[in-house]
Amino acid sequence: MPRYTKPRRTWQYTDEFKVTAVQLSLTDNVTSKSVADSLDIHPFMLSRWRKEYREGKFVGKKIKAEAVKAASSELKRLRKLEIENERLKKV
After folding, report:
1. Long-range contacts of 74-82 (CB under 8 A, 24+ apart)
2. Is the backbone of residue 54 left (phi > 0), alpha (psi -120 to 50) or beta?
3. Are 60 and 19 in contact (CB under 8 A)?
4. Minimal CB count within 10 Å: which of 12, 34, 44, 60?
5. What pLDDT does 78 receive?
6. CA distance 44 to 21
């Protein structure tokens, strides 16, 4: 096992970021994995944030429905592009 000489870096996210991520993952036709991938976080972290959000451990400002809709459509577009990119790589 390697020895760590420096402390590991842990990222700290604001409650507002967490709430936004959770609300994006709760929209229809969007998977939690795609939200986690687009935000560059681990899907398990997002599921933990969703649990904490349900329990009321952090509360942020509610984001507007238009913002959620725009973000979810952007995630769908990104997912389509990723699928198309994978398909083109195979060809």
Report:
1. 75/24, 75/30, 75/34, 75/35, 75/38, 76/29, 76/30, 78/34, 78/38, 79/34
2. alpha
3. yes
4. 12
5. 84
6. 13
Query: Which residues are CB-contacts of 23 (< 8 A; sequence separation ≥ 6)?
Result: 62, 63, 68
Half-sphere exposure of 4 (CA within 13 A, CB side): 4
Complete DSSP assignment for 13-80? --HHHHHHHHHHHTSTT--HHHHHHHHT--HHHHHHHHHHHHHTS---PPPPHHHHHHHHHHHHHHHH
> Which residues, at least 6 apart from 61, have a Cβ–Cβ distance to it below 8 Å?
16, 19
Q: Which pTM does this prediction carry?
A: 0.58
